[in-house]
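REQUEST FORM: STRUCTURE PREDICTION
Request ID: SP-0412
Submitted by: Lab K.M.
Chain count: 1
Length (residues): 198
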Amino acid sequence: MFDLTRLAADTLVPVVTQDARTGVVLMLAWADREALDLTLATGEMHYRSRTRGPWHKGATSGNTQALVSLAWDCDADTVLARVVPAGPACHDGTTSCFRDDALESDALSALDRTLAARAAAPAAGDRPSYTQRLLGDRNLRLKKLGEEATELAVACADGDRARAVEEAADLVYHALVALRGVGAGLDEVRAVLAARVR
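STATUS: Completed
RESULT:
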Protein backbone atom coordinates (compact mmCIF):
# COMPACT_ATOMS: atom_id res chain seq x y z
CA MET A 1 0.00 0.00 0.00
CA PHE A 2 1.34 3.41 -0.98
CA ASP A 3 1.97 5.51 2.14
CA LEU A 4 1.14 9.16 1.48
CA THR A 5 2.12 10.20 5.01
CA ARG A 6 5.75 10.04 3.89
CA LEU A 7 5.15 13.25 1.92
CA ALA A 8 4.71 16.62 3.62
CA ALA A 9 1.67 18.55 2.38
CA ASP A 10 3.65 21.32 0.68
CA THR A 11 6.45 19.22 -0.82
CA LEU A 12 6.85 18.47 -4.53
CA VAL A 13 8.37 15.15 -5.56
CA PRO A 14 9.40 13.92 -9.01
CA VAL A 15 7.19 11.20 -10.46
CA VAL A 16 8.74 8.84 -13.01
CA THR A 17 5.84 7.45 -15.05
CA GLN A 18 6.29 4.06 -16.72
CA ASP A 19 4.05 2.03 -19.01
CA ALA A 20 3.14 -1.03 -16.92
CA ARG A 21 2.73 -3.17 -20.05
CA THR A 22 5.91 -2.34 -21.94
CA GLY A 23 8.26 -0.98 -19.28
CA VAL A 24 8.84 2.16 -21.37
CA VAL A 25 9.52 5.28 -19.29
CA LEU A 26 6.86 7.71 -20.48
CA MET A 27 7.59 10.97 -18.70
CA LEU A 28 8.85 12.78 -15.63
CA ALA A 29 6.51 15.18 -13.83
CA TRP A 30 6.00 16.58 -10.36
CA ALA A 31 3.36 15.84 -7.76
CA ASP A 32 2.43 16.96 -4.29
CA ARG A 33 0.28 15.26 -1.69
CA GLU A 34 -2.94 16.63 -3.24
CA ALA A 35 -2.05 15.29 -6.71
CA LEU A 36 -1.16 11.87 -5.35
CA ASP A 37 -4.36 11.83 -3.25
CA LEU A 38 -6.38 12.54 -6.41
CA THR A 39 -4.45 9.86 -8.29
CA LEU A 40 -5.30 7.25 -5.67
CA ALA A 41 -8.92 8.39 -5.42
CA THR A 42 -9.64 8.47 -9.16
CA GLY A 43 -7.32 5.74 -10.48
CA GLU A 44 -5.88 8.19 -13.04
CA MET A 45 -2.66 10.18 -12.85
CA HIS A 46 -2.71 13.73 -11.47
CA TYR A 47 0.37 15.93 -11.26
CA ARG A 48 1.31 19.42 -10.14
CA SER A 49 3.13 21.79 -12.44
CA ARG A 50 5.48 24.22 -10.75
CA THR A 51 4.15 26.96 -13.02
CA ARG A 52 0.53 25.97 -13.89
CA GLY A 53 -0.60 24.26 -10.70
CA PRO A 54 -2.57 20.98 -10.50
CA TRP A 55 -3.39 19.00 -13.65
CA HIS A 56 -5.11 15.76 -14.56
CA LYS A 57 -3.12 13.97 -17.26
CA GLY A 58 -5.28 13.66 -20.36
CA ALA A 59 -8.11 15.92 -19.15
CA THR A 60 -7.78 17.97 -22.34
CA SER A 61 -6.16 15.53 -24.80
CA GLY A 62 -7.90 12.34 -23.71
CA ASN A 63 -4.47 10.73 -23.22
CA THR A 64 -5.15 9.67 -19.65
CA GLN A 65 -2.97 7.33 -17.63
CA ALA A 66 -4.78 4.62 -15.65
CA LEU A 67 -2.96 3.88 -12.42
CA VAL A 68 -1.53 0.40 -11.87
CA SER A 69 0.71 1.18 -8.89
CA LEU A 70 2.67 3.86 -7.05
CA ALA A 71 5.95 3.15 -5.23
CA TRP A 72 8.48 5.22 -3.33
CA ASP A 73 12.18 4.92 -4.07
CA CYS A 74 14.54 3.89 -1.24
CA ASP A 75 14.89 7.48 0.07
CA ALA A 76 11.16 8.28 -0.25
CA ASP A 77 11.93 11.33 -2.37
CA THR A 78 10.84 10.04 -5.81
CA VAL A 79 7.71 8.18 -6.90
CA LEU A 80 7.49 5.50 -9.59
CA ALA A 81 4.04 5.46 -11.20
CA ARG A 82 3.19 2.39 -13.28
CA VAL A 83 0.31 3.17 -15.63
CA VAL A 84 -1.65 2.00 -18.64
CA PRO A 85 -1.71 5.00 -21.00
CA ALA A 86 -4.72 5.78 -23.19
CA GLY A 87 -2.50 7.52 -25.73
CA PRO A 88 0.84 9.31 -26.12
CA ALA A 89 2.44 10.66 -22.95
CA CYS A 90 4.27 13.55 -24.60
CA HIS A 91 2.60 16.80 -25.65
CA ASP A 92 4.22 16.39 -29.09
CA GLY A 93 2.28 13.16 -29.72
CA THR A 94 5.04 10.63 -29.06
CA THR A 95 4.72 7.62 -26.77
CA SER A 96 7.46 8.87 -24.46
CA CYS A 97 8.94 12.27 -23.66
CA PHE A 98 12.35 10.58 -23.86
CA ARG A 99 13.92 10.24 -27.29
CA ASP A 100 16.14 7.17 -26.97
CA ASP A 101 15.04 4.50 -29.48
CA ALA A 102 16.36 1.89 -27.04
CA LEU A 103 13.33 2.58 -24.84
CA GLU A 104 11.16 0.57 -27.22
CA SER A 105 13.69 -1.83 -28.69
CA ASP A 106 13.32 -4.88 -26.47
CA ALA A 107 13.29 -8.12 -28.46
CA LEU A 108 9.62 -8.97 -27.80
CA SER A 109 8.42 -5.52 -28.88
CA ALA A 110 10.58 -5.68 -32.00
CA LEU A 111 9.23 -9.16 -32.84
CA ASP A 112 5.64 -8.00 -32.30
CA ARG A 113 6.18 -5.00 -34.61
CA THR A 114 7.66 -7.30 -37.28
CA LEU A 115 4.70 -9.67 -37.02
CA ALA A 116 2.26 -6.76 -37.30
CA ALA A 117 4.06 -5.55 -40.42
CA ARG A 118 4.03 -9.02 -41.97
CA ALA A 119 0.33 -9.40 -41.17
CA ALA A 120 -0.43 -6.07 -42.85
CA ALA A 121 1.71 -6.61 -45.97
CA PRO A 122 0.74 -8.95 -48.80
CA ALA A 123 3.19 -11.72 -49.57
CA ALA A 124 5.76 -10.66 -52.13
CA GLY A 125 5.76 -12.86 -55.22
CA ASP A 126 5.31 -16.61 -55.04
CA ARG A 127 7.39 -17.03 -51.89
CA PRO A 128 5.69 -15.64 -48.79
CA SER A 129 7.76 -15.49 -45.62
CA TYR A 130 7.34 -18.23 -43.02
CA THR A 131 5.36 -15.80 -40.87
CA GLN A 132 3.04 -14.96 -43.77
CA ARG A 133 2.53 -18.67 -44.46
CA LEU A 134 1.53 -19.19 -40.84
CA LEU A 135 -0.76 -16.17 -40.86
CA GLY A 136 -2.42 -17.40 -44.05
CA ASP A 137 -3.02 -20.97 -42.87
CA ARG A 138 -4.97 -21.40 -39.63
CA ASN A 139 -4.37 -25.15 -39.42
CA LEU A 140 -0.60 -24.82 -39.94
CA ARG A 141 -0.48 -21.99 -37.37
CA LEU A 142 -2.29 -24.04 -34.71
CA LYS A 143 -0.32 -27.22 -35.51
CA LYS A 144 2.99 -25.39 -35.06
CA LEU A 145 1.77 -23.83 -31.80
CA GLY A 146 0.99 -27.30 -30.43
CA GLU A 147 4.28 -28.75 -31.66
CA GLU A 148 6.34 -26.00 -30.04
CA ALA A 149 4.48 -26.34 -26.72
CA THR A 150 5.13 -30.09 -26.75
CA GLU A 151 8.82 -29.62 -27.61
CA LEU A 152 9.22 -27.19 -24.70
CA ALA A 153 7.51 -29.62 -22.32
CA VAL A 154 9.79 -32.47 -23.44
CA ALA A 155 12.94 -30.33 -23.06
CA CYS A 156 11.84 -29.33 -19.54
CA ALA A 157 11.03 -32.95 -18.66
CA ASP A 158 14.49 -33.98 -19.89
CA GLY A 159 16.13 -31.22 -17.81
CA ASP A 160 17.79 -29.86 -20.95
CA ARG A 161 18.21 -26.19 -20.06
CA ALA A 162 19.67 -24.99 -23.37
CA ARG A 163 17.03 -26.78 -25.44
CA ALA A 164 14.24 -25.57 -23.14
CA VAL A 165 15.32 -21.96 -23.69
CA GLU A 166 15.40 -22.44 -27.47
CA GLU A 167 12.00 -24.15 -27.46
CA ALA A 168 10.55 -21.41 -25.26
CA ALA A 169 11.70 -18.83 -27.80
CA ASP A 170 10.05 -20.84 -30.59
CA LEU A 171 6.85 -21.11 -28.55
CA VAL A 172 6.77 -17.36 -27.86
CA TYR A 173 7.19 -16.64 -31.58
CA HIS A 174 4.41 -19.05 -32.56
CA ALA A 175 2.14 -17.78 -29.77
CA LEU A 176 2.55 -14.20 -31.02
CA VAL A 177 1.81 -15.35 -34.59
CA ALA A 178 -1.29 -17.16 -33.32
CA LEU A 179 -2.41 -13.98 -31.55
CA ARG A 180 -1.91 -11.98 -34.76
CA GLY A 181 -4.08 -14.56 -36.49
CA VAL A 182 -6.99 -13.52 -34.27
CA GLY A 183 -6.19 -9.80 -34.46
CA ALA A 184 -4.42 -9.48 -31.11
CA GLY A 185 -0.89 -8.54 -30.14
CA LEU A 186 1.71 -8.30 -27.39
CA ASP A 187 0.35 -5.08 -25.84
CA GLU A 188 -2.92 -6.83 -25.05
CA VAL A 189 -1.03 -9.66 -23.33
CA ARG A 190 0.98 -7.09 -21.37
CA ALA A 191 -2.24 -5.36 -20.30
CA VAL A 192 -3.68 -8.62 -18.97
CA LEU A 193 -0.45 -9.41 -17.10
CA ALA A 194 -0.32 -5.88 -15.65
CA ALA A 195 -3.90 -6.23 -14.41
CA ARG A 196 -3.01 -9.50 -12.71
CA VAL A 197 -0.20 -7.93 -10.65
CA ARG A 198 -2.28 -5.05 -9.27
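NOTES: The domain at 106-196 is CATH 1.10.287.1080 (Helix Hairpins).
Reviewed by: T.R.
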